Amino acid sequence: MAEGSNFDYLFKVVLIGDSGVGKSNLLSRFTRNEFNLETKSTIGVEFATRSINVDGKTLKAQIWDTAGQERYRAITAAYYRGAVGALLVYDISKHATYVNVTRWLKELRDHADSNIVIMLVGNKSDLKHLRAVPTEEAKAFAAENGLSFIETSALDASNVEAAFQTILTDIYRIVSSKSLEQSEDPIKPTTGDTITVSHSVDTPANTGGKCC
Amino acid sequence: MAEARARPDVREIKDAYDHLFNSHQTATKIKDAALSGRLFQRADSGADVAGRSMAWKLFLVPNEPLQSVAEVEAVPPLKPVQAAREAYRALLMEKMRAPDGGYEEGFTVPGLGTLPPRTTNASGNLEKNNPLSLHDENPWREWFAAMDLRKTILQDVERTFPDIAYFRDAEVQAELTNVLFLYSVMHPDIGYRQGMHELLAPLYYAIDYDSFPPDVNADIDPTLKELCAHQWVAADAWLLFTAVMKGAGQWYEWQEPKTQPESSSPLPTHVQFNVGADDARVKPYVAPIVAACNRVQSVFLKAVDPELWKAMQGAGIEPQIYGIRWLRLLFTREFNMQDAMVLWDGLFATDPAFDLALWVCVAMLVRIRNKLIPADYSSQLTYLLRYPSNAAAAGGSPEDPPIHHATLLLRQALTLQMSPTPTTGVSIIHENKNLLGIPVEVPPPISPPVRRRPRAGEGRQSFSAESSTRNDAGGSKAAHNRQPSTPMGLPESLARGILERGESLGINKTVMNAVSEFKRNLPDLATALGRLPLTPQPHNAAYPLSPERPTGERPPWEPRSRFEMEREITQMRALQRKLGDTVGWVVDTLLLDESEVQDEAAKKTVEKRKREALECLSYVRDVLKGTVTEVEDERLIGEEEMRRRRDKERQEKEAAEALSRRHSTPHPPQPAAAIPIEARPQGAGARRSQDYFPPQGLSTSPPGRLPAPTPIPATVSAPRNPPLQSIASAPAMPIPSASAQPLQSPTLNAPWNYTKSSFSSASSPIATLPRVPPRTSTVLPRAMPLPPSLRTPPGASPNAAAPPAESGMREQKPKAAAYDPLGAIP
């Protein structure tokens, strides 16, 4: 445990989805194995880390959890910056949260990296009697949009581990395959990509202070 | 539910009232007391302090206008409170009424507790006014939207302070929902935002705590009885909440406020409404909360505690990540309720605009500086998002009476606000030492492999297999940190150039920094690293996490490194120059007067050139506007001009050669067959990476043979690119083999010199061979000093990365080929 700060990869993964779908509990279940029926609403950002092992590599996941009510415009840029994975959570017992998945996908398209790995997560699978979103429908939607899909329950802990494990492994595979690829292209140009004026809007002082 | 509403003895409330309003205290004095934690004798006894809500009413509710507040005895603000109650009743009745005149089940008239009268005001037009109507003006639409809003609010209200039983009461929840609902519909610009519920809840609680049960018979001052009437708890909470939101509301703003000043939103005065519409469009909207957070960290903290600021900035902490919650909830999640209420007392008393709150943030940061400074990104973020409560442990030396840590925080915030200097910062650090026992010395940064800080989620949940990997990784990581002698690939040698300029940073760090913009560069980076001859430590490899401090991770999304900045600046300068040149040419062209031209054909030519010039100009506009990311040189200069320039280059070349030939009569011209073929790619490479290098002097081949992208105007010259220059002057880095590292000249083939087109045209200079060597350079004698005009631009020096085996040759021949036709350079 002493060398805990060592890891092979560090991945930032964000949790998004409507308010009350159980994002914070997914996070606490995964990182602390805790679940609380009465959690405070998330204000701003929560953050936790956990490392898992894949192929003998230590993947450290920095998982960010944000308030679901609004697209937290004040912190969107900071929230999505550097995220390589996103768990898009809805509540299987509330159809409206599933309908809003499309809006969250748009949000991701607008603010996150285009290569971000997205997983659709139907949470609260323990509420079988209240199910409002058929598994097959969500699965089809996920396939259509190129997302992976899983149903979880932070309450009874089912599939929570698997969900994070899967997305982290997916990210890892992509990253490691990219680095193995001895592609013909040398280093690609980064011109234009890195100059993202809109990004610095939130943090003018940040970047400003950094340069000297 | 009775037990959930613990109420103080009536006498206690009375005492508090007398203390506030019947002891001839001025409002100023009361405020001072609140600020120094002396307002209530039992301030430390818990969240339940009788009389608190009265004090808040005094602070937050403006009493009779234009009183000289300072010297007048405090009087209970009864009149405005009563007015607000009436307003609350009227507004709520209005907003809660369904279009058919009915109310939701369970709704009672505020203040009376009776069922609302059912006024049937349904208009006769059932076409419109009918819950099922799809008509656009159907009033039910609005009603349903309001119901949705109430649902949203209730969802949060139900989750308000789950650990306080009081808030589980359905009645309380309904009242909180009403207040928030009313606020939201009255302030549509902001609406309801999560967090408001936790701002309202303590207000409501305090008012309810002080309120008299309706059936109280004790002998009480009627003013007091009215001020604390139980039936008006919700209305009073609405009043106080609205007052608090006058200051805190700005932090909930999430969209650009409408520029219409008549909006009823209580936006603080500093939010500018009168910004011209044009300005508003030009200036990107920065949410006030982000601006406030930035001020906290990048202005205030920087001024007060530069060391801490540097540590946080260095780790890449973005202030809004923690500040949004600190400010929006006014610290209720950072401290326990009782401490937070002490803070609120002071904040409400001093500054209802809550400017002081920003300084409270600063004082809070300074208080945990010992934890923050040595920590890495994750740990810093953890501390900031879970503010350590033990950092706030109250202390107190024997001679000083113990001071409440929240009160101390307020005092420090005030001090800082008045004099934001490093000296104040130091004095506060010392104060924290004296009063809270926080040592002045910052613990040293944790160096790897070190004891890991306990981080959430990594304790009991870690996988067993981890430890062995970690051990391996830990062992090799140290060795990996500095490997200057390892043969390096292109990115390293480039980074080396920068490194050599005196930055005492680890080479890997520089490299990693150089490519650390994970977000964008992931694939490129991975490719680049994958190509390295030596990547023995795959951990560390794909993600540039090597840190400023050796310890932990650095977030990949952190602000860009210096290397990247320089690269960007260089790019931009070069682009600017290019554009400037184009504009110069365009102006020249447009200044041509076609009316003076007699010849019809010539006129046509001029017209054509002008058209071209305009096209180029519009292209420049697009580039400047940012709509074009990939600048194509061909589009910057007209065709004819391009041809002309190439010709000119060639002519210059020939002239130079002719000159050299004249001066070298003693030696008969020698064939340049000696020029090794692999030397030539230097030229070729330069051409392909031509973006920022002048073709002049370098260009030796006829224009027709140029690879796809055409060279840029000759006025752009490498020597003006400082970073490149410095890289060029870096010592040569050995590169193992030409085939493994096809990009022989790091200077010329620096990643940022590539355009997409140059990529696709050829992946390696060798691939472009065989290229016919320039005829003229092969026949030159070799004893002629190089004409100054043709001297190699430093940026073009091909030496930097020549493989050792060929270095001798490479140092001379390429120059001979390109610039030293006379072979003057030995």
UniProtKB/TrEMBL annotation, chain A:
Kindly list the places in or outside the cell where this protein is found, as annotated in its UniProt entry. Answer: Endomembrane system
**Ranges of Polar residues compositional bias?**
191-206
Check the record and name the PROSITE patterns matching this protein. RAB, RAS, RHO
Which is one Pfam family of this protein? Ras
Identify the keywords attached in UniProt to this record, alphabetized. GTP-binding, Lipoprotein, Membrane, Nucleotide-binding, Prenylation
Gene3D superfamilies membership: P-loop containing nucleotide triphosphate hydrolases
Q: Where is this region: Disordered?
A: 183-212
Kindly give the PANTHER family that the UniProt entry links to this protein: DRAB11-RELATED
Which named protein is this?
GTPase
Automatic annotation (TrEMBL), chain B:
Which residue ranges does the record annotate as region Disordered?
A: 109-132, 440-492, 539-559, 641-730, 757-826
Ranges of Low complexity compositional bias?
672-682, 793-805
Q: Which PANTHER family match?
A: TBC1 DOMAIN FAMILY MEMBER 5, TBC1 DOMAIN FAMILY MEMBER GTPASE-ACTIVATING PROTEIN
Q: Does the keyword Transit peptide apply?
A: no
Sorted UniProt keywords = GTPase activation
The protein in question is named: Rab-GAP TBC domain-containing protein
Here the segments flagged for biased composition (Basic and acidic residues) are 550-559, 641-660
Look up keyword tRNA processing and say if it applies. Answer: no
Q: Where is the composition biased (Polar residues)?
A: 117-132, 461-471
Q: Which GO terms describe its cellular component?
A: cytoplasm
| InterPro entries xrefs | Rab-GAP-TBC_dom, Rab-GAP_TBC_sf
Question: Pfam families under this entry?
Answer: RabGAP-TBC (PF00566)
**Origin superkingdom:** Eukaryota
Organism encoding this protein: Trametes coccinea (strain BRFM310)
Q: Name one GO molecular function term.
A: GTPase activator activity
Domain Rab-GAP TBC, by residue range, is 133-351
